[in-house]
Write a structure and sequence with these properties.
10-stranded mixed beta sheet, 6-stranded parallel beta sheet, 16 strands, binds nicotinamide-adenine-dinucleotide
Length: 406
């Protein structure tokens, strides 16, 4: 396809570069390598050890792979023969790398959460539209059978009108202690790792994997899992009219990290109450579910996670309602769907418009957690009502030389 991909024939091969090669980036390599019409042509990580290891892993999967390796993602974006990038860097890089990729004429399969701030999500959408780009968020469960079936059951109306949704994820962050600062390894570009985030001295727990427990880069367990389970709520009832957000919680006590130790959030949408908790709701069977969604309707309830579904109507407890027809077209696979979209130029199932809306409550809940107060939201203007501090936290000034394109 190389450079002229906007007019690509569906039969053409798609040339992919993978940026960010930790646990999730290596899954990207494995998944895209398995697609018959994809050629992986570049790998990029600012950690040379991970870059080399992933290169070896790719060659062991595909001895014919012909890839260049990079430590600076901008050199990947400079290449006109690359059609698609995938991005599995830490969260504070997601938006900027995606926007720069759109501007360089590339489509993006980007990891969740969509963005670090709400303003970044707005800029992503503007740049996607302006450049006629394709974007899929890495919410892989969206493509699974269970979310399709739950959506059909909820939308069938058999449970009546859904008035309350309870979402939860158990478990908190590890206590990381207060380790001393160190010189970063010669093989790691720490300044690039920090990128647009505020400068901090290096210590290993701030970097690979455990970065997610620092509010400067992510939002802890809540931000890690919100989109996966909120996805089934957006897919099935697509709540609208968010107007207030109230978070309660605490920060870790014996840890350099500051993302929530636990967080509970009350969201009020038009005609819908949504509760996020760090423990399961008091519903039979949920004590064994680490993550889940519980829908309460006027005629019954439905409790689900990624793979299971329990329906309660009156005294009946069921796993399916066979009378509800299979009306929703099934996904051909999350990465397959994305590559097909790259070819057809039709947005994929976890597209940017949809996933940005789904991500907004996550951003707002973290702001309420930081400010320790209930916040009123104007969903048309996308701003808090009468709260300058909260509005300030909708964006973040980037550290030089990085800036967020409008
Ligand atoms: N969809 C899922 O189920 C799922 C599962 C796990 C992780 N994730 C997401 O994937 C992302 C990565 O998570 P992880 O656990 O693999 O983290 P990780 O810290 O193990 O890996 C991130 C990698 O990105 C590299 N990196 C950082 N900045 C970079 C840059 N500017 N250019 C190139 N490389 C850069 C790091 O050196 C590191 O190797 C996170 O956003 C996370 O939320 C998604």
């Amino acid at each position: 396809m190389s450079g002229t991909f906007r007019s690509v024939a569906p039969s053409d091969r798609v040339r992919v570069a993978h940026i960010g090669l930790g646990g999730q980036g290596n899954d990207h390599v494995k998944w895209f390598n398995a697609l018959p019409d994809v050629d992986i042509v570049a790998l990029c990580d600012l950690d040379k050890v991970r870059l080399e290891e992933t290169h070896k892993r790719l060659i062991s999967l595909n001895e014919n792979a012909s890839v260049e390796t990079y430590t600076d993602f901008r050199r990947v974006l400079d290449r006109n023969d690359i059609d698609v990038i995938t991005c599995a860097t830490p969260d504070h890089w997601h938006a900027l790398i995606a926007i720069m990729a759109f501007q360089s004429g590339k489509d993006v399969y980007g990891e969740k959460p969509l963005s670090y701030t709400l303003t970044e999500g707005q800029a992503m959408l503007k740049n996607l539209t302006r450049n006629n780009s394709i974007f899929q968020l890495g919410t892989q469960i969206h493509a699974g059978e269970n979310y399709h079936r739950v959506t059909e059951i909820i939308q069938s109306g058999k449970l009546g009108k859904i008035h309350t949704v309870r979402l939860w994820k158990t478990g908190g962050p590890p206590e990381l202690g207060f380790p001393p600062n160190e010189n970063p390894p010669d093989t790691l570009d720490w300044d690039m790792w920090l990128g647009p985030a505020p400068y901090e001295e290096y210590t290993p727990v701030r970097c690979h994997f455990t970065y997610r427990y620092f509010l400067d880069y992510s939002g802890g367990v809540f931000a890690d899992f919100w989109c996966h389970i909120a996805d089934i709520m957006y897919m099935s009832i697509h709540p609208e009219g968010l107007n207030s957000i109230e978070s309660r919680g605490d920060r870790p006590h014996d840890s350099i990290s500051d993302a929530p130790l636990w967080i509970d959030v009350d969201f009020k949408f038009k005609d819908l109450d949504v509760y996020w908790t760090s423990v399961p709701p008091p519903v039979p069977g949920t004590d064994k579910m680490g993550i889940g969604a519980h829908f309460e309707g006027t005629n019954g309830s439905l409790t689900c996670d990624y793979n299971t579904c329990t329906i309660r109507i009156g005294n009946e407890v069921l796993n399916d309602l066979p009378e509800v027809p299979k009306s929703i077209v099934r996904s051909h696979g999350h990465q397959r769907n994305f590559i097909d979209s790259v070819k057809s130029r039709k947005q994929p199932e976890s597209n940017l418009l949809y996933t940005r809306e789904m991500t907004i409550p996550m951003h707002l809940a973290i702001i309420s957690f930081r400010l320790k107060r209930k916040l009123k939201w104007d969903c048309q203007k996308e701003e808090f009502i009468g709260d300058d501090a909260a509005n300030y936290l909708l964006s973040r000034a980037y550290r030089s030389p990085w800036s967020l394109p409008a």
